[in-house]
Amino acid sequence: MKPIQTAKVQVRKKLTSKALSQITSFFDESFSTPIWLQKKVSRRSALKSAAGATMIAATPLSAWSAMANEQLTKVLQTDPWLTLNAVLAHLLPESPTGPSAKEIQATQYLYNVVYQQPTDNAEIEFIYKGVGWLNGFSQSQLKKNFVMLTLQEKETILRAISKSRAGENWLSNLVGYIFEAMLSPPSYGGNPDGIGWQWLEHQAGFPLPPMGKRYYELPGQQAIFSSNTKSTSKTAPVNKATTVVSHQHYIRSQIGTKKA
């Protein structure tokens, strides 16, 4: 194809591509892989090197906050986290050969990604939208939400959506976070007591930085935080970088009041 023809095709794709808010299912043919996901895939490829693995491991080895755990327990009762938890559990089920999503606390890690790490808002919206698309497809096929399906029904539904570009992107992103949960330090919510490291016989890097120096707490980084958090003293400002916003506040402020 000639350069001019290629340019025209690219322009047409941009013109016909819908905004994420306009897409209503995994099977919308106008969906295109988001730029943030393309960049993430490139970063993950780079981290396959030994240097990258050491960098990830050389972070705090301490349990994530009790406050974050309490908030997660509450939001797990409803969507989108109810469904996300079920999907992660299905993607890495219990097995005699290795830890499961539940054992590596994949959902806790994803919660940290959404509420504490400086994650692109477009990615968070995509994660949440995918829950709505998944349950919509599940309802159309089996008249039940995903969490109510049998093991085989869940497998069938996930394999069906994986054949679409949006579905493959959504599942691939979640699988990536499962691996991160298994390999990252416990301070990020996953890999409790280094269970993933033990399974892989991996020795974490040393020395480990103290709490308060996780990568998103370093100067120049900014995590998601509540907009109404204010400092009460000029000499003792609140550390906004580690404030965990409520589930309801995030839904309202980032993607509106409609269900994902």
Would you give an account of this structure?
The structure is a single chain. The protein is an all-alpha fold and about 260 residues long. The protein has one domain. The chain has helices at about 5-15, 35-45, 50-55, 65-75, 80-90, 105-115, 120-140, 150-160, 165-185, 195-200, 245-255. Helix 6 crosses helix 9. It is globular. The N and C termini lie far apart (about 40 Å). Mean pLDDT is about 75; it is low at about 1-15, about 45-65 and about 225-260.
Question: What are the main properties of this structure?
Answer:
11 helices, 0% strand, single chain, 260 residues, disordered N terminus, mainly alpha
Distance between the termini: 40 Å
Shape designation: globular
Order of helices and strands: HHHHHHHHHHH
Taking pLDDT < 50 over at least 5 consecutive residues as the criterion, the unreliable ranges are 2-17, 46-63, 223-260
Report the radius of gyration as a whole number of Å: 20 Å
- The number of domains is 1
Secondary structure class reads mainly alpha
Q: What characterizes the major β-sheet?
A: none
Strand content: under 5%
> Residue share in helices?
40-55%
Tally of DSSP β-strands: 0
